[in-house]
Amino acid sequence: MKRDRQRLERYDASTSTYTIMQITDEDRESQVTLEDGETYFMARLRIDRAHRHVDKVGAVRYSFEHIPDDAGGEVHVYSKFGEVEKDTFRGGEFSELLKWDRHMLVFDDRTGIVGEVRGTNHMIIPRQMLMTGSGDEAQKGFKCEWATLFGDQLIVGSHGKVLREEWIKRIGPHGYTVASENWSHVYRRMRDAVGVGDKGYVVHEAAEWHPYRERWYFFPRKISETPFDENTDEREKGNNLLIEADAAFSQVLVRPIGARIPERGPSSIKLVPGHPDEFIYMKSVELGGRTESWIGAANIMGDLLADEEKLGDFKCEGIEFV
Predict the structure, then answer these.
(1) What is the DSSP letter of 195?
(2) pLDDT range class, residue 288, cuts 50, 70, 90
(3) What share of the chain is helix, strand, coil (3-state, %, to 5)?
(4) Average pLDDT over the chain, rounded to an integer
(5) C-alpha pair distances (Å), 94 with each of 146, 243, 316
(6) For residue 164, what pLDDT is reported?
(7) For the chain, how many helices (H) and strands (E)?
(8) Exposed e or buried b for every residue in 23-48, given b needs 16+ CB within 10 A?
């Protein structure tokens, strides 16, 4: 059985309670000094529960249970690896979580590192370092923003907002082979589908491959018909449109998921194991100095299965079933 199907069969259709993990992207606040004097990049790993409810007429709803920090609801994870720029040293800015076989992987959008959370001290061990664009053009890490399994491959993608972020990385099943693939035509088809012209942009941080339906699902964080402006982007460009496409992206459909809340945008999406036509998702807010994370659930037909709930005043950008 291919790994993409194995991942969605970790739970069967009778499951009603799921353990979920979320990881934060602390941006410039990620660097910390521990008691031993060592400096690391730190992120918070949230551990909570999702409950699936079915009423007498078969209607599905999800609810979310917050596990208190002192009951194991939050642990800190640490990485030693960063990117040197003119006046900064940054790393540990994790944008996605993905379970691949027995390994819980994290994706650093600053360094391009794909790491594995290991051990009781929750250190992040690098397994791959992905480079921007084709992989040969610059000494800069790939801006990892979304990841999914496609057959036995791990596919990692970026925002798709500029040319170097329109590439994807295909990682082989043993983790050692990486192929870079130009997806500019794919991102263009998705921009066309949501009605964005040459002056606008679409920002992608949430995507899944559905192995049973052989369909792609992208839930963009931002959609804009006008050129990028940071203040306007933060306040007004949050998205609620789900994009569905066949494997070749020759057929692209768009449907709304709930109401659009302009400051919120999807940052991660995961199909539900045992119920792969349903998904949970994260939305993030970054507005001035304010950050928030929200969680919700829906199905691929566009029906909301939960009201969005606020997780806290931090920025989670990755979610996964444990």
Answers:
(1) T
(2) confident
(3) 10, 50, 40
(4) 92
(5) 10, 24, 9
(6) 84
(7) 3, 26
(8) bbbbeeebbeeeeeeeebbbbbbbbb
**Tens-place pLDDT, residues 297-308:** 999 999 999 999
Contacts 24+ apart (CB under 8 A), 133-140: 133/163, 133/164, 133/167, 133/180, 134/167, 134/180, 134/182, 135/169, 135/178, 135/180, 137/164, 138/164, 140/83, 140/112
Cα dihedral 166→197→233→260 (10° resolution): -100
Domains defined along the chain, listed by start: 3-321 (2.120.10.100)
In angstroms, the CA 299 to CA 278 distance is 4
Q: Which residue has tokens 């991660």?
A: 268
Terminal CA-to-CA distance of the chain, rounded, Å?
Answer: 20
Give the Cα separation of 31 and 305 in Å (integer). Answer: 37
CB 182 within 8 A of CB 167: yes
How far apart, in Å, are the Cα atoms of 29 and each of 55, 145, 217, 260?
Answer: 44, 19, 32, 29
Is the pTM value of this prediction over 0.90? Answer: yes
Task: Look at strands 17-24 and 82-84 and give their pairing.
Answer: unpaired
∠ CA 186-146-3, nearest 5°, is: 95
Collapsed DSSP state (helix, strand, coil) of residue 28: helix
The CA distances from residue 147 to 3, 39, 150, 217, 317, in Å, are 14, 28, 10, 12, 12
Bridge partners (DSSP) of residue 306 are 297
pLDDT digits (tens, 9 = 90+) for 130-145: 999 998 888 889 999 9
Query: Using only C-alpha atoms, what is the Rg of the chain?
Result: 19
* pLDDT, tens digit (0-9, with 9 covering 90-100), for 144-185: 999 999 999 999 999 999 888 999 999 998 877 999 999 999
